[in-house]
Amino acid sequence: MKKVYFSNILAFLFLFSSVTFAQHEHGSDTTATPAIETSTEAVEGKHEETHGEAKFEPGKLILEHIGDEHEWHFATIGHSHVSISLPCIVYTKDGLKVFSSSKFKNEHHEPASYEGLKLEHHHIVAEDGSTVYDFSITKNVASLLLSAVLLLTIFLSVAKGYKEREGKAPKGLQSLLEPIIIFVRDEIAKNNIGEKHYRRFTPYLLTLFFFIWINNLLGLLPGGANLTGNIAVTLVLAVIAFFVTNLNGKSTYWGHIFAMPGVPKWLLILLTPVEVIGLFMKPFSLMVRLFANISAGHIILLSLISLIFIFESIAISPIIVGFSIFMNLIELLVALLQAYIFTMLTSTYIGSAVEEHHH
Fold first, then answer.
1. Average pLDDT over residues 246-262
2. Of 92, 139, 141, nearest to 118 (Cα)?
3. Would you give the distance in Å from CA 231 to the centre of its chain?
């Protein structure tokens, strides 16, 4: 019977563990930046709504578009909004309520209250100030579930191909993904963890790599939600990496933290706190690096498009569109690079934790 390792269990569960976290911290969460067409339409719609009476505010617009929402907005065509209303699930003093987020909009698509509830800065709050527990399926949560289904569909198909074509050359999707799988296994897992232990951590590292990469790519699609630009999701990924690393740490690993060999005891008073802080700084750096790099690209893209409406001139649009296309190409590279960096660093942390003592 095959052994079931703790890290492999976490690899299976972490796709779903972010659902609750992704609904909170809307002020810090970032959703996907739409592609150039959708972004331009959204900015244009915002500009038209002012009817020239108010000054265009790019900062406010950008923050609105990188924040989480209770509806899945794809584009604005004229004054028409193409969007999907998502289910709101809240628990209030009156009990559990389940309804569509469209209830917060009237026939003119203007904000409205519903059964004593209203949307305030993308949060559902009670009009009387009472406590509201929000378990809604927001855009980020819906995207998380969608990416989980996509990942399961892809890799169950690949696993079936390996089983049916055992000993034969791969074909189709299997042949496309096999070089990447082998790269993660040999160049990341084996090189950083070592021959003895790399096999039991490979499923987790593969899940981590493809989860980040695929969600990065989904974030570049029109109307997509960029989960890896969501600080709550990167936090969960970092916390899982922290537990996988430290729960598998050997005595040598902990000895170098609390009782470094060859170091005078009086010096341990200074060095041990530094090492302990380092335990938490490693996952923290993973969290911030992924969040900052992914969201920065999308903010730059929206900022470029906003320049057209800041200068109120279509003459500069060819230059802006050219730069935007270039940024999208850069984002494709960043999507893969950030998945590689996060997985690589995680594997080095695991490798240092399971390293055998050398005599």
1. 86
2. 92
3. 7
Read off the pLDDT of each residue in 194-220 and give the average, rounded to a whole number: 92
| Residue with token string 């055992």 | 166
For 351, half-sphere exposure in the C-beta direction (CA atoms, 13 angstrom radius) is 17
| Distances in whole angstroms, Cα of residue 113 to Cα of each of 215, 220, 331 | 33, 33, 39
The residue type at 68: D
Radius of gyration of the chain from its Cα atoms, rounded to whole angstroms: 24
Sheet holding 133-134, edge to edge: 95-100, 87-92, 133-134
Pair 350, 248: CB distance under 8 Å: yes
Question: 240 or 322, which is more confident?
Answer: 240
Phi, psi of 178, rounded to the nearest 5 degrees: -60, -45
Residue with tokens 């009156």: 94
Of 212 and 20, the one with more pLDDT: 212
User: Looking at the chain, how many residues does it have?
Assistant: 359
Nearest to 224 by CA among 140, 114, 289, 150: 140
Under 8 Å CB-to-CB from 257, ≥6 apart: which residues? 272, 275, 276, 279
Share of the chain above pLDDT 70, in %: 83
Least confident of 77-81, 100-104, 223-227: 77-81
Instruction: Please write down the HEC assignment for all residues of 282-350.
Output: HHHHHHHHHHHHHHHHHHHHHHHHHHHHHHCCHHHHHHHHHHHHHHHHHHHHHHHHHHHHHHHHHHHHH
What single letter denotes the amino acid at residue 311? F
N-term to C-term CA, the chain: 34
